[in-house]
Design a protein that fits this description.
alpha+beta, rod-shaped, Resuscitation-promoting factor rpfb fold, 3-stranded antiparallel sheet, single chain, 3 helices, 4-stranded antiparallel sheet
Amino acid sequence: MRWAALTTKTKATVVVVVAAAIWIGGVGSAGALVGSVVTNVGEARPAAVVASAESATPRTTPTPTPTPVVVVSEVTEDSTIAFERTTVDDPALPKGQTRITTAGVPGVLTTTWRVTTTDGTETGRVQVGKEVTRAPVTEVTALGSYVAPAAPAPVPQAPAAPVPQEQAPAQGLITPGAFCADAQNGSVAQASNGRSYRCGGKGADANGHLHWNTM
């Protein structure tokens, strides 16, 4: 086969083989090898060339892709439920006063989640349950409505009965030390003993009454 009839790929192969032959055996060996290669190039590919081409291509080992670690678990979370307030009437408590009879207690709401983690990082969360684990207690406040009754009005006392006036003895004589009327205060009268007495001469007694006293 003539050199001009060779393809470009075949020529490149021959050049590689010749270079190898010169490096190993010298120019003479290279000439003989060229003829052999050109003659047989159409029939078979030299083993040396194939080995050289295969060894020229580097082989790499693929790095295995790590398998992610996926974990699915359930977790619970508690939240507070506020308690309500109510007011009731207490007739035993003074009006306007208040008193807590039942203290309010918050409730607890528990929520369950299904959590997915990939290599330790949360990648998904789904709610799977919700339950009131402690009911709230309503706060009760008593509001007083008792009003004390009004005190009874004082009963007016009847006026004291007038002190009976002793009857003056006949002929206008008085009895010494006897009561005398307020209208007679300061007047002078004579007793049966012949002496004169003044009404209220010593002032009123402890009860406010006047007497005929010596002058």
